Amino acid sequence: MTDDQRYIELLWLEEKLWLLPEKAVFIPERSSLLLADLHLGKAGHFRKAGIPISSEIHHADIQRLDRLILEHSPKEVFFLGDLFHSDMNNEWELFSSFLNHHPTVNFHLIKGNHDLLPQVIYSSSRILVHQIYYQLGPFHLVHDPDDLFEGQDGFAGHIHPGTLLKGRGRDSIKLACFVKEPKLLVLPAFGEFTGLHCLPTESGRSFYPVTPQKVFDFAFNNH
C-alpha cells in the first residue's frame, strides 16, 4: 500500500480484497461489495423508548453506501446481517427507496439476530434473503462467526470489532477495525449508531483500524 492509498489490499485464497475506510470490503474480481451491521431503524427503536435520537444518522449511512456503489459499481452487494434493527419503522421506506435507485445491482441479506421483520416485508423489496450463509466463490458469508463450520473460510460481522489505540501519556482512542484471522475476516459495523467491542490481541489475529480517511496496517497494543 502506498502512503496515499486509502484502503488496504489483502490477498486471501488467491483473491484480492480491498478493506475500505467506509468500513466495507470490495472484491474487485467478483464485483462484490460486502458490509455488515447497519442496524437501520435503531434510532427509531430508541425514539419509541422516549430517547430522542435523530434518524439523520441512518440517512448518513445510506448516503455513504450510495457513494460506495457509485465509486465501485458493484454487481452484487452483500449485507452480512443486522441490516435492520428489530421493528418496522420509517427507515425501511428510506432503505427501499435506496434499493430502487440501483436497479442494476443485486442486493443480498444474510440474516442476523436483529433481522426480525416479517418475511413479506423482505419479499416485497429487491433484496434476496439467505437464512444462514451465502457461498461466494471460496468464501462463506455469514453474520455470526460461529456459523462458520470447521475448515471453512469466510466473512462475518456481528461482533462490531474495535481496538484501543494508546498514545503518549494517557492519550487513547477507540477505533472500529477489520479483524483478520487465518480463516476469518470480521468486518466493522457499517452503521454509525453502533457500539464497539475491543478484541484482545492473539497469535494469528491482525487488526486494521479504520478512520474516515484511511485504513491502517500497523502493530499496536490494544489492551
Fold blueprint:
Blueprint: E1 8-12, E2 15-20, E3 24-27, E4 32-35, H1 42-48, H2 56-72, E5 76-79, H3 90-100, E6 106-110, H4 119-123, E7 127-130, E8 133-136, E9 139-142, E10 154-156, E11 161-166, E12 172-181, E13 184-186, E14 197-198, E15 206-209
Parallel strand pairs: 4-5, 5-6, 6-7, 9-10, 10-13, 11-14
Antiparallel strand pairs: 1-2, 2-3, 3-4, 8-9, 11-12, 12-13, 12-15
- Regions with pLDDT < 50 over 5+ consecutive residues? 49-54, 219-223
Strand content: 25-35%
Task: Tell me how many strands there are.
Answer: 15
N-to-C SSE series?
EEEEHHEHEHEEEEEEEEE
| Overall pLDDT level | 86
Give a quick account of the main beta sheet: strands, pairing sense, barrel closure: 8 strands, mixed
The gyration radius over C-alpha positions equals 17 Å
- Total helical elements: 4
CATH T-level topology: Purple Acid Phosphatase, chain A, domain 2
By CATH reckoning, the class would read Alpha Beta
| CATH architecture descriptor name | 4-Layer Sandwich
Structural class: alpha/beta
How many domains, as an integer?
Answer: 1
